[in-house]
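[step 3/7] inverse_fold.run input=structure_tokens len=279
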């Protein structure tokens, strides 16, 4: 019986620190690295990142869009990257932001959360904006296969507010509603539930939200989007102990040298450790 994602994530965070490095092969980064904007460039980029950091960070988060751009051959590179990252001991969060009516969601769940799927990942990012209940097939599949979800609750981009800060008829905000659904999903799970929220590190003081969902909080926005590790306690308060801070371009811009990538990830990891320890 596979251990639940939350249990595996807690252990990885405790052993390796909570940093998540994003594998985001932007065309502009391929160019900066002196690589062609083609499948060979994509493969070289991804392999370099995985080899540089997958043996030391808790989580790698490949952004599927940058691989899908190249069609089936790009997806083949993604499959290989997931396998290599997992073999090196990192947990993989597939950033594909899926969300659809329940019957279609079941197929997305089979694609990423069934342990026999070629793209099986430890967790998947999903959008709850067809209604949280539409995610049920993914929740069920994740539970059965020891995987997890990260549900978009309060995203790092400024445009997210028009949806996520909207207030429902009962006075509760939409983002807060997603956090409450996740808290219910994780109830009783120790040491950490498998159903996380995405909450941007860019959002400033979130003390009006109940971030104690019993599961992890994936926090993108550090580096290129302007947030810093030192911001984390102010944004997350005591829930910072469950935060998985993501850095993509802030690390990736140091390539193609593997040593420089590793050094950058280690600097972010150390700054995060220091910031979290102070809470
Ligand atoms: O789900 C995500 O990972 C995500 C959610 C969010 O609210 N904001 C956000 O930036 N992301 C992703 O996190 C990564 C951030 O990349 P950098 O800004 O380069 O560090 C990208 O892959 C985004 O797609």
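[step 3/7] decode complete -> sequence:
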């Amino acid at each position: 019986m596979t251990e639940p994602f939350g249990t595996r994530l807690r252990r990885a965070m405790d052993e390796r620190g909570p940093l998540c490095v994003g594998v985001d092969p932007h065309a502009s980064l391929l160019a900066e690295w002196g690589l062609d904007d083609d499948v060979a460039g994509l493969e070289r980029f991804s392999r370099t990142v995985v080899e540089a950091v997958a043996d030391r960070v808790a989580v790698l988060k490949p952004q599927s869009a940058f691989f899908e751009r190249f069609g089936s051959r790009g997806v083949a590179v993604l499959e290989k990257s997931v396998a290599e990252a997992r073999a090196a001991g990192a947990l993989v969060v597939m950033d594909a932001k899926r969300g659809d009516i329940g019957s279609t969601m079941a197929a997305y769940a089979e694609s990423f959360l069934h342990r026999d799927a070629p793209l099986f990942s430890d967790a998947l990012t999903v959008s709850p904006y067809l209604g949280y209940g539409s995610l049920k097939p993914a929740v069920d599949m994740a539970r059965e296969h020891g995987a997890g979800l990260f549900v978009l609750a309060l995203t790092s981009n400024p445009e997210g507010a028009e949806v996520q800060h909207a207030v429902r008829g009962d006075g509760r905000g939409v983002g807060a509603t997603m956090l409450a659904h996740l808290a219910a999903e994780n109830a009783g799970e120790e040491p950490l539930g498998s159903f996380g929220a995405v909450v941007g590190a860019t959002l400033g003081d979130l003390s009006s939200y109940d971030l104690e969902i019993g599961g992890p909080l994936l926090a993108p926005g550090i580096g290129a989007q302007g947030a810093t590790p030192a911001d984390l306690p102010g944004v997350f308060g005591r829930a910072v102990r469950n935060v998985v801070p993501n850095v993509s371009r802030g690390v990736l811009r140091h390539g193609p040298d593997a040593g420089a990538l590793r050094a950058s990830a280690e600097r972010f990891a150390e700054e995060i450790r220091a910031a979290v320890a102070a809470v």
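[step 4/7] annotate
Strands lie at 20-23, 59-62, 91-98, 123-126, 148-154, 195-199, 217-219, 243-247.
The mean pLDDT is 97.
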